[in-house]
């Protein structure tokens, strides 16, 4: 993951609060995977546990959160007062569990951070329980953004390099489907969903100041300063300004 995640660990949850749509996707994912108390659910790239902990509250299964960044995991452990989740420092390329032990592996906003996606998908396949291609097979669930999302991202007008940086990081869903198949996964389903919301200018400025997405930390410093200055000027002129944010998600499921 980007080095910026260590820096923003203490403020990450405030910068990226869980939405009602996030919770609905978690619930639907668990119902579809038919997870029960005897299963293991692994979230790869769990960060501060902003999704892991709500996920654990929706199932009686054993839940593990894996992340490369120790400071993010420290924040997650501090929030997990009931000790509901096993927090482990590890990599998407080498998950700390035995072969065939997980009923569900989850990767939420992780694909764009992977340099070797097919290798990571193959590692997910390794840890998923076998099912002979049937209904009992373990499931990998990926949430990521589509190329259209990248091209229409609401901050592009302020930071033109965002789209340039993110085009190679968010491939077409067909590319991801091919990589999953090469990793040995089957029964691949891709569901594209659109979400629309308005964001108050004060919230936008706070998020950009905190570099709430990794791409902001990758911008040329001058471009970042000038874009932030434009947003701050808008805030100073009129605090009632609302920016329209359109998100396009790709929800991808694949089985062992």
Overview of the molecule:
It is built from eleven helices and seven strands. By secondary structure, it is an alpha/beta fold. It has a single domain (4-145, 165-196, 248-255), classed as 3-Layer(aba) Sandwich (Rossmann fold). The chain has a seven-stranded mixed β-sheet with strand order 3-2-1-4-5-7-6. The two termini are 26 Å apart.
Please outline the helices and strands:
Layout (H helix, E strand, L loop, with lengths): L3 H5 L3 H4 L4 H14 L6 E5 L7 H6 L4 E6 L2 H10 L5 E5 L14 E5 L8 H11 L11 E7 L1 H5 L9 H6 L6 H10 L3 E15 H9 L11 H17 L4 E14 L1
Parallel strand pairs: 1-2, 1-4, 2-3, 4-5
Antiparallel strand pairs: 5-7, 6-7
Helix pairs in contact: 6-9, 10-11
List its salient traits.
7-stranded mixed sheet; 7 strands; Rossmann fold; 38% helix
Low-confidence stretches: none
Which topology does CATH recognise? Rossmann fold
State the helical fraction: 25-40%
Number of strands: 7
Radius of gyration: 19 Å
Query: How would you characterize the largest beta sheet?
Result: 7 strands, mixed
Strand content range: 15-25%
Assign the CATH class.
Alpha Beta
* Distance separating the two termini: 26 Å
Count of helical regions: 11
* Morphology: globular
CATH architecture label name: 3-Layer(aba) Sandwich
Q: Spatial order of the strands in the main sheet?
A: 3-2-1-4-5-7-6
Class derived from helix and strand content: alpha/beta
Full CATH superfamily name: Vaccinia Virus protein VP39
- Element-level helix/strand string: HHHEHEHEEHEHHHEHHE
